[in-house]
Amino acid sequence: MSTRLPGRNYKEVFDRGRSAKGRLLVAWRQKGSEFEPQAGVVVSKRTFHDAVGRSRAKRLMREAFRLLVKEESALPSGRWIFIARASMGSAKCGEVKADMAKVCGRFS
Question: Where are the domains of the chain?
Fold first, then answer.
């Protein structure tokens, strides 16, 4: 199964989930053991004006999530949505992964 969250499920995560803020991103989680870990990413045009910056932020968040799922112990199950913050513009993948793990750890 894919780790990408289908677009039709975003509203449900926002309505029924909880959020936590990190330095580089905001995470929303819909709890549920029946859900395989799936993630959606959101990057605002207001925060990242050019398409190159938005695409880079999306790639960084998807890769960080993929690495966390691979580790298995670092990520609680459920549906996730990650929203990029402006400080992600100059961040490296390791920094995004560390911040994502820290924010996701708050849900445990």
Answer: 7-105
